[in-house]
Write a structure and sequence with these properties.
- The chain has a six-stranded parallel sheet with strand order 2-1-3-4-5-11, with helices on both faces. The chain has a six-stranded mixed sheet with strand order 7-6-8-9-10-12, with helices on both faces.
- The longest helix is centred in the first third of the chain and has 16 residues.
- Helix 2 links the parallel strand 1 and strand 2.
- The chain contains ten helices and twelve strands.
- By secondary structure, the protein is an alpha/beta fold.
- Helix content is 37%, strand content 18%.
Length: 343
């Protein structure tokens, strides 16, 4: 991978130092390139370009994408590049530039890029696209793989955990933006509370920005002041602020998403839903190598999703969460994917 420059903001530097994770990325973005489609002969090493919304130093969602790309270099002898910090209005242009540069696999890491990916895929039938979504779409172009994150599956065990640990009976969901996947997480927690017989109240709140620690800290402080003693965090970089808020309260617990964030508040941290895009990208690239130019692959507790063993809770709660995960895996618990807006 050719590296050109890092796009690092001060808060992200602080987070990286805290978690001892460092990474730097290509500014990507394509260019004049080869000027043609990226189709390669079956069996040739793939040339993979990724489009990231965040920065690879976030120790979070984008960093997981970088890890998957690096693993693809080793496993498939792939040539890789990426663009980070891509805004949704710039996505189609960025994708088209990678097509023009001759990349034959283009991965857009985030469901906000789905529409742009499908639009360009229809124009470039010789390129394979990997798009992320939170459902199984119908009538896909034949050159598109859909990676379904299944976020609702992951939040059901967190709902069980929250219902079993809250002392005040007030639980808060801290989201970033009101998107369908976020609604599905809230509804999964509601289902878990209902299924487990908990009478706890769930308060869902969105900060308006997945990566704003200041706003996250302010809102988390307000939630705690309103009686919430379990915070289910669903932010990216914004989680830094949420952890700062709970560290001031010895009796407030918090969960996170994507990566281990225990070092941010060891005495308040319970668990994180861990996502592994390395295994998902590997399976898709194996299919592409075998000539499968499109398909669907959903993340599950058997592949791509796991829950860290909970900390700072009673052993009985740890056992309950582990049993819940096993029941979802076996099919004994059916977590409904409900993306209807939360009132």
């Amino acid at each position: 991978m050719t590296l050109h420059r890092c796009l690092v903001r001060p808060l992200m530097v602080a987070l990286v130092l805290l978690l001892a994770l460092t990474a730097c990325g290509d500014d990507g973005g394509g260019g004049s390139g080869s000027g043609g489609g990226g189709g390669a002969a079956q069996g040739d090493p793939p040339r993979i370009a990724a489009v990231f919304s965040g920065t690879t130093t976030d120790a979070d969602y984008t960093f997981l994408g970088l890890q998957a790309l690096q693993a693809a270099e080793d496993e498939f002898d792939a040539e890789t590049t990426y663009s980070e910090g891509v805004a949704v209005p710039d996505a189609e242009r960025t994708i088209r530039e990678y097509v023009a540069d001759g990349y034959n696999v283009i991965w857009t890491h985030g469901s906000q890029f789905y529409d742009a990916t499908i639009a360009v895929a229809a124009e470039a039938p010789d390129v394979v696209f990997i798009a992320e979504q939170d459902t199984e779409p119908q009538d896909l172009p034949g050159n598109v793989w859909v990676l379904d994150r299944n976020f609702h599956l992951a939040f059901y065990p967190l709902g069980v955990l929250a219902g079993a640990t809250t002392q005040t009976g007030t639980i808060a969901y801290l989201g970033g933006v009101t998107l369908p996947f976020s609604y599905s997480e809230v509804h999964a927690v509601e289902q878990a509370l209902a299924d487990s017989g908990s009478d706890a109240t769930l308060t869902p709140v969105w900060t308006g920005d997945l990566n704003d620690p200041t706003k996250a800290q302010q809102i988390t402080t307000q939630l705690i002041g309103s009686g919430a003693d379990v915070i289910l965090g669903a932010l990216n970089l914004g989680m830094v602020g949420a952890f700062e808020a709970v560290k001031q309260e010895s009796d407030v617990l918090i969960t996170a998403k994507y990566t281990d964030k225990s070092e941010l508040a060891p005495d308040n941290y319970v668990t994180s839903v861990i996502y592994d895009f390395t295994v998902m990208l590997s399976e898709i690239l194996t299919g592409i190598t075998d000539g499968e130019t499109g398909g669907y692959l959903g993340m599950t507790f058997d592949q791509g999703i796991s829950v860290q063993p909970p900390a700072n809770v009673d052993p009985e709660v740890v056992d309950l969460v582990e049993q819940t995960v096993e029941d979802i895996r076996s099919g004994d618990i059916d977590v409904v994917r409900d993306v209807s807006p939360v009132e």
